[in-house]
Amino acid sequence: MPSLRPASLPFLLAALLCASAGAADKPADSPKPSTALPGVSLLGAPLEMPGLERKRQLRLYLPPGYATSNKRYPVLYMHDGQNLFDNATAYAGEWKVDETLDALAKDGKLELIVVGIDNGQEKRMTELNAWDFKEAGKGEGREYTDFIVKTVKPLIDRQYRTLPGREHTAIMGSSMGGLASHYALVQYPQVFSKAGVFSPAYWTAKPAFDFVAAKPVPKDARVFMLMGEKEGPQMNGDVKKMAKVMGQTGHPAANTVLKIVPGAEHNEAFWAGELREALLWMFAAPETKVASSR
Fold it and tell me: How many domains does the chain divide into?
């Protein structure tokens, strides 16, 4: 992994801490109207996070037909829950996950349960990184991922009509959440078979390349890597390097997407605009392809 140029480090850190979904709910003195659709709710009280001595709020999206059907549904776990469904809680705009999935359900293309895990505000950069990063602190990503796998997922599978197998379970996030999603897929291939790796902050986790190289994921695992061309040479170079590392492990090209979008920047509007395509590919039949740019 190329070293960080001194001039680039402040910009990248600012992007992660501010523009990349690092803040939590809006200040009370500047209310914004809620944009969450009826399928979105808070999932009970915040849950204890074993090993981290803190709690975390979950947010839940159920597809429009959930209440009137007996169907079981695939599940997508997503980081930065405050920013997924509601402009009132989003830091810099929402992902419009509920709008996108309601439209896909209406068109008969895809129905999912989505579980959003709120970010830890000042703990975000350490919770979403499995490795120590001197500019942020000791990595807590192993414990955070264990929380999703060992606490959150069993709860969701008990309380909702899920399809609990790995073939129906995905994880997705952006920036530090993109890094965390790739880590989760590699660390728990028996739990997840799909990862949406949007604008991944590999530059905060130099060991990630060797980690992925040493632990090839099952060949049926699907990895959708997305990057904006204007996110900078460091992040663009790193995502290309990671795609190459995955190819060298023997992972099939048919199950890997690297999409670099000209003119796109590091923000929720970009990720929201790419969500539909990514989800349709991740959850589609094996022969489905998507246009890549490398």
Answer: 1
